[in-house]
Design goal:
Helices cover 44% and strands 23% of the residues. The chain is built from 8 helices and 21 strands. It folds into 3 domains: 1-71 and 260-421; 72-101 and 213-259, no CATH class; 106-208, no CATH class. The protein starts with 13 loop residues before the first helix and ends with a helix. The relative contact order is 0.15. With 451 residues, it is of the alpha+beta class. The protein has helices at 14-25, 27-63, 139-148, 261-284, 305-319, 344-353, 355-377, 383-450, and strands spanning 72-76, 81-85, 92-100, 106-109, 119-124, 129-133, 153-159, 166-172, 181-184, 192-194, 200-202, 204-208, 213-217, 225-229, 233-238, 241-245, 253-259, 288-290, 296-298, 332-334, 340-342. A 5-stranded antiparallel sheet has the order 1-17-3-13-14, with no helix packed on it. Strands 7-8-4-12 form a 4-stranded antiparallel sheet, covered by helices on one side.
């Protein structure tokens, strides 16, 4: 740490003088620093804009799919019948009577201490045979072998209460008649168990047979028809409608499918809100405000061509005519202050009268917006991305110039310190010479007086 002795000879405050000179010298560097700060602010604003445009691209890409507006509600007059609308649904209704529920097959053995054999066969309804080979004929080994097989059957032992015997339950893992099964010895014979009177009786009992779920359509009419399903769900019984049943009934249940007008309107409203959110962000950051004395201040996007281009291209994608007609016909219009407006009543009316027109217009708008927004926000060559990269490159160049100025200013400050230090030394020498000469002159003058 250096020792500073200001103005010992000159009387000058050299530290403050050098500091003032360096502040003047640093003006070009400060201009560069301010430029870096404003450029970084622009980068942050552009990144926020890019995020909003990218989110809009994602939203509109999803909405531009053909089934995005295929929204329907379902109802049923019975709590034992439930309908779910999926892609491809259309309005309609149907009366169904649930006559059977799907169920899996269950076999239960008599009380045993061990299985008759360690090897046996589980035969599926289609004739497929699964050979079960257990490590022994103990119940635990047999159950383990069954559960590890791909026979579609699971086993469990149930205590009978006497502490020594168990009954074994074999259950199909899937419902439906095609998942029925039987158990036999490896030679195809049925399992038997010896009775106390010396006769043989079947070892296994079927306590529940595998069956399909069954619906009767148009019950009691000449068009009556029965449909079945291996499980309790009937896929696409109506176009795009799955029906799931949970209990039987002798009464018909009415299943109805209607277009979900509220949900469809919400999609359109949310799209308009998302677009307005983007436009508001651009407008807020492009505003010019007046201050005291008529002074004005501009926001970061004021006069920026990129932000202006983003708004114009996306707005055009929304409001340009479709098949020669304005989107305002379905309730999407632009106001005089440059915002989008959604008329829910008008939209609902067109949806009720001509749903195909709503779908066509919405799909066209979202496809156009998705295309524009994707091109603007593409992470490689999007217009906004390219602008961000350019601004970041500028910051990098400015930072390099600022570092150069740091070295230049450091050198200049060192030069000033050496210069003023040399000045003080020179002045000190001159002062010393002056004092010496003054003392000599004084001595001479004193000597002349004495003589």
């Amino acid at each position: 740490m250096g020792l500073s002795l200001d103005g010992l000879s000159s009387g000058l405050n050299t530290t403050e003088l050098i500091k003032s000179l360096m502040q003047v010298e640093a003006i070009p560097q400060n201009i560069l620093k301010n430029k870096v700060k404003s450029t970084q602010t622009m980068v942050s604003a552009l990144q926020a804009l890019n995020t909003k445009v990218s989110d809009l691209a994602t939203l509109t890409k999803k909405l531009s799919k053909p089934d995005s507006l295929q929204l329907f509600t379902t109802s049923s007059s019975s709590d034992g019948v439930k309908a779910i609308a999926v892609a491809g649904a259309s309005p309609g209704s149907l009366d169904v009577t649930v006559t059977k529920l799907a169920q899996s097959q269950i076999h239960v053995s008599e009380a045993v201490t061990e299985w008759p054999d360690s090897s046996f066969i589980i035969k599926a309804a289609d004739g497929t045979k699964s050979v079960i080979i257990a490590n022994s004929n103990s119940l635990d080994d047999v159950i383990k072998a069954v559960n590890a097989s791909d026979s579609g059957v699971k086993a469990v032992k149930v205590a009978t209460g006497d502490g020594t015997t168990f009954r074994v339950q074999f259950s199909g893992t899937e419902t439906g008649s095609k998942n029925a099964f039987s158990l036999t010895n490896t030679d195809g014979s049925a399992f038997t168990v010896a009775k106390s009177d010396g006769t043989e009786a079947p070892l296994m009992s079927v306590i529940r047979t595998a069956q399909d779920a069954e619906l009767t359509l148009w019950s009691g009419t000449g068009a009556e028809q029965t449909v079945t399903s291996s499980n309790n769900t009937f896929k696409s019984l109506l176009p795009g409608v799955d029906i799931t049943v949970s209990k039987t009934s002798t009464e018909a249940a009415t299943v109805a499918v209607e277009r979900d007008t509220e949900a469809t309107s919400k999609i359109a409203a949310d799209l308009v809100n998302s677009l307005n959110d983007l436009f508001k962000f651009i407008a807020t950051n492009s505003a010019v405000t007046s201050g005291v004395g008529g002074a004005t201040s501009a926001m970061i996007f004021t006069g920026d061509s990129t932000a202006r281009d983003v708004k114009q291209r996306i707005m055009d994608a929304v409001i340009m005519p479709i098949d020669g007609k304005s989107p305002s016909e379905i309730g999407i219009s632009i106001t005089k202050d440059g915002k989008l407006e959604f008329n829910a009543e008008k939209f609902a009316k067109v949806l009720a009268d001509n749903p195909a027109r709503i779908e066509s217009v919405m799909h066209t708008i979202t496809a156009r917006v998705s295309d524009v927004a994707t091109k603007l926000s593409d992470k490689y060559d999007g217009a906004i991305t390219t602008r961000i990269k350019g601004q970041e490159s500028m910051v990098s160049r400015l930072d390099t110039q600022i570092l150069d100025w740091d070295r230049r200013l450091s050198t200049r400050e060192a030069t000033l310190k050496r210069t003023y230090s040399a000045l003080e030394v020179q002045l000190s020498r001159l002062n010393s010479q002056q004092s010496y000469m003054a003392s000599q002159l004084s001595a001479l003058n004193g000597g002349g007086q004495n003589s």
